[in-house]
Write a structure and sequence with these properties.
globular; 8 helices
Length: about 130
Amino acid sequence: MNDLELSLEQIEGAPWPAPSDDDTRLVRTAHALRREPIGALDAEGLRLLISQDIGLDMLVPRAVTLLREDPLAEGDHYPGDLLGAVLEVPVDFWTRHRDLAAEVEQIAASVPPEDLFTPLPERIALFRTAVNR
C-alpha cells in the first residue's frame, strides 16, 4: 500500500481524540479529513489541512502535484486558494524541502499576474522573500 492510499491518521499512527460537541466545524472537518486517504483529498481538503499546519510533510507534496496540473486549483474560497495555503506554510518547512520550495516558486511564476486573485501577489512576494534568505 502506498502513502496516497493511507490517511494521515494511519501514517502518523496517532489518532486524535474524537471531537466534542463544543468543537467548531473546522475542528470536526479537520478530524474527518485526517481519516481520508491522502490521494482522495481534493483541493479544499488539502487547503484546509495545510492552512492549519496539519500533516505538512505528507500533504504539501500532494498539493504541489495538484498545483502542477492546475496552479489555480480552487477549494471553497477563490481560484488559487490551494496555492495561497501552500505559500503560507511556515518557512522552516521550506528550509527542509528546498526542492519543493523551488517548484512552488516556479508554479507561482507560471500564472499570469492578471489571473491572480487579490491575496496571491502579496503571498507570492512574501514566500519568495522567506525562502530566498
